[in-house]
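Final report, Chapter 2: Outcomes

The project's central promise was a pipeline that accepts a single protein chain and returns its three-dimensional structure in a standardized token representation, suitable for archiving and comparison. That pipeline is now operational. To close this chapter, we reproduce one record exactly as it appears in the project archive, with the input sequence first and the structure output second.
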Amino acid sequence: MQNAFSNAERAEVLTQALPNIKKYNGKIVVVKYGGNAMVNEQLKQQVMEDIVLLHLIGVKVVLVHGGGPEINDLMDKLGKKSEFVDGLRVTDKETVDIAQMVLAGKVNKTLVNLLEMKGGRAIGLSGMDGHLIEAKIKDERLGYVGEITNINIAPVTDLLERGYIPVISTLGCDRDGCTYNINGDTAAAHIAGALGAERLIMMTDIAGILRDRNDPATLIPELSIKETEQLFRDGIISGGMIPKVNCCVEAIHRGVGCVIIMDGRVPHSILMELLTDEGAGTMVTGN
């Protein structure tokens, strides 16, 4: 079968990407990765390819990941039932041990290995390493679900300076040695803020913020923090999108240039966002 693009067309695409390559060279981009893009093997391969490509052209990528579906799978195998309060998983001592095994172990090391296989240089961290994510109990009813109290960003900046892709699982700890499960979006916002990241990319399972949640054609391509306040009042930002947008606002208040909410199910959506003029998803800015 004949290739869809000629060599000349491929060269033209690369030429058009050049201004954006220059724009992000040497800049820090944090990617929050999870959901369907993580459990679909083909999409996982493409996300890792995107991250390695950015790494090779000089973008300092930090990958922050969750692993809720994998935690659920292991809990099912162990015969342990998940409990939720106000949409948040109740995390007793056994559950936080399971989360630690899955997040800091299987998921983190699988992603590190994939990045290495694609030609990148990656090292895995959990929020417990170097007390990267310090936390306290968020709500007694939720058990070992953590609220972030401090970010010690030095382990991440050290790896970036040495040319590695840091891969961070969202576990936290306190000074007494207790381990906490941390919301991935919240952790990514705090880490991106501590790094002064140029962009935070939040990969989800919808196209972005929609004026009509049932119509992808109503995607809002760009919003300021002030405009999000009106969308909250109008009920357009609702349900599971509320905490995500709150994390966007938190990241910008902490110094991140802008935040993108994008559909992680779209192949190579990260490259579309960073290396094309059209972008992908909804951009939330401070202006």
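Archive annotation: The chain is about 45% helix and 20% strand.
This record, like all others produced under the grant, will remain available to the consortium after the project formally closes.
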